[in-house]
Amino acid sequence: MLLSRSLTDRLRTQHEAIEILIEQTDKDRLLLYPAPGKWSIKDNIAHLAKYQPVFINRIHKILLSNEPVFESYRAENDPEFAVWQGRDLQILLDTLYADREQINKLIADLSYTQLDMVGVHKKFGRLTIGQWTEFFLLHEAHHMFTIFQLSNNTEL
User: Fold this and answer.
1) CA trace torsion 92, 47, 104, 68 (10° rounding)
2) What number of other Cβ atoms are within 10 A of residue 48's Cβ?
3) 3-state DSSP helix/strand/coil % of the chain, to nearest 5
4) Burial track 81-113 (b if 16+ CB lie within 10 A, e otherwise)
5) What's the pLDDT tens digit per position in 57-114?
6) Is the separation of the CB atoms in 68 and 61 below 8 Å?
7) Are residues 48 and 18 in contact, defined by beta-carbon separation less than 8 angstroms?
């Protein structure tokens, strides 16, 4: 499988928009919970930063196993997520950037055969590593849109 230019460009740069989305956002607003049980902007960033190592581990398992099966990742079920929520925003962003470099190298170094290796998502079925990468980016984009909404919603 050949990865599209769109995918590789987004993988390389999409996360960089997070800082742009929040650069004019008041510090108090970054911590504001929009509703009971909903995440703040900082929580969304913590989730994105925490999920990247999960994604890296999943790719390694796919490379080492025959069609491993993965549950949907739920931050609420991850005992480490609360620790990530408590981290300083700049540390989260620095971690996000560092881990993204690792993801970019990991994906870029894969052969076409490796990109076609499959991991099974309990909800979405059999996905090649290329499809897992697209899924990863769509998930990230969803949270980035949430960050945009929380940063700019004048009704909050």
Assistant:
1) 140
2) 24
3) 65, 5, 30
4) beebbebebeebbebbeebbeebeebbeebeee
5) 999 999 999 999 999 999 999 999 999 999 999 999 999 999 999 999 999 999 999 9
6) yes
7) yes
